[in-house]
Specification:
The radius of gyration is 23 Å and the shape is elongated. The longest helix has 26 residues, at 157-182. The chain has 370 residues and is α/β, with parallel strands linked by helices. Helix 9 (213-218) links the parallel strand 7 and strand 8 (227-228). The protein is 31% helix and 22% strand. It folds into two domains: 2-239, TIM Barrel, CATH 3.20.20.10; 254-338, Lyase, Ornithine Decarboxylase, Chain A, domain 1 (Beta Barrel), CATH 2.40.37. An eight-stranded parallel beta sheet has the order 1-8-7-6-5-4-3-2.
């Protein structure tokens, strides 16, 4: 992914929420101190303590979190925050006036996912951009950020490719709208003032930040973007495999589970990996309404296609399998499960065992909490 970004002339700002470890983050950025993306302030503080100094907190900031964000900003060279609502602007202004805090801001833009972000075609979105620019120097509007989360609902690589075009194109168009607004009336003193309050050489230098693992994986070259923020690609999972983001050999995370119950009379096994160990993410049910809670494999990560992980309770996983296979895996046997969503699954563990050529070569500890 880093090599693809370099070939494309864009910045890789990987999302570290999938693994939450300094070891993998350094692999992602080539041993450097950033840039990275985080999803919690706890992650930001953890990575700042370990030398990462260019961080984007990729969740819209709420007013009550601003003092903590300001403290984190003092620990690093740059902390980018997200805004998609004018309600947070008074709090930004108050902290600047009272404490001298200066904030680097990205506007969160909705490119079709409809989870968070401004509508790039709405006049209120343009007003928000201009208001943020007018708050300089307390606020430095650095760019526009979006996430094509709806790419997870795609059915194949072709559909993902189309979403990738929409993801980057919407930021280019919105940035152009901001430019056109500033160029609207050269005699307007406000517009002249605003044009100097964007970073570098004006609104045209606003960074376009995109990022989702499916869109980042299917394109050959990143276009109409300045930085990319994929995260799940470091592990992949059963979901990414199903929609075509990766091949089976690229999936790097699995859960080691033990058979704790064997019932050949009802064609069932029970393992000690339940909803907490695997998460209850339903997986790619838009492709298969009856998809399971992960892909069952033997210890060599060879899929066991006749065995289905059909149900989860808190600490139990229920496997449906032919009686012959049930007898082949007695109590005490071990299986590996490729989770539907590796980000949710990994977040439940206090350590990861690093496997190379079948041997444990390390233990990595992720950060937890918010």
């Amino acid at each position: 992914m880093r090599e693809k970004a370099q070939r494309s002339g864009v910045l890789l700002r990987p999302h570290v929420k999938t693994h939450k470890t300094r070891e993998i983050a350094r692999m992602q950025v080539g041993g450097e101190s950033g840039p990275i993306t985080v999803s919690t302030l706890a992650e930001g503080e953890f990575f700042a303590r370990h030398g990462f100094d260019d961080i984007t907190y990729a969740v819209p900031i709420s007013p009550e979190k601003l003092p903590r964000a300001a403290a984190l900003a003092r620990m690093v060279k740059r902390l980018n925050l997200l805004v998609d609502n004018a309600a947070v602007l008074p709090a930004l202004d108050s902290l600047h006036r009272n404490q001298g805090v200066e904030f680097d801001i990205f506007i969160k833009v909705d490119c079709g996912y409809h989870r968070a972000g401004v509508d790039p075609l709405a006049s209120a979105s343009l007003d928000l951009a201009l208001h943020l620019a007018a708050m300089f120097p307390g606020v430095r509007l650095q760019g526009l950020l979006t996430h094509a989360g709806h790419s997870y609902h795609a059915r194949n690589r072709q559909e993902i490719s189309k979403i990738a075009e929409e993801e980057s194109g919407c930021l280019t168009e919105f940035r152009q709208r901001i430019l056109d607004c500033l160029k609207g009336d050269p005699k307007d003193p406000m517009q002249w003032a605003l044009s100097g309050r964007f970073p570098a050489t004006g609104a045209g230098a606003l960074v376009r930040s995109t990022g989702s693992t499916p869109t980042a994986c299917v394109v050959e070259t990143f276009q109409e973007t300045d930085e990319v923020r994929p995260g799940n690609y470091v592990f992949f999972d059963a979901f990414q495999l199903a929609i075509g983001s990766c091949e089976f050999s690229q999936v790097a995370a699995s859960v080691l589970a033990t058979v704790i119950g064997s019932y050949p009379d009802r064609n069932q096994l029970i393992i000690d990996a339940g909803a907490l160990a695997l998460s209850k993410d339903p997986g790619p049910n838009h492709l298969d309404p009856n998809c399971d809670y992960g892909i069952l494999c033997d210890l060599g990560l060879r899929p066991l296609s006749q065995m289905k992980l059909t149900a989860l309770s808190q600490e139990h996983g229920i496997i449906a399998a032919p009686a012959a296979l049930v007898n082949f895996f007695p109590v005490g046997s071990r299986l590996r499960v490729i989770p539907n969503h590796s980000c949710l699954t990994a977040a439940m563990y206090e350590r990861y065992y690093v496997i190379e050529e079948g041997n444990i070569t390390g233990e990595w500890q992720p950060v937890h909490g918010w």
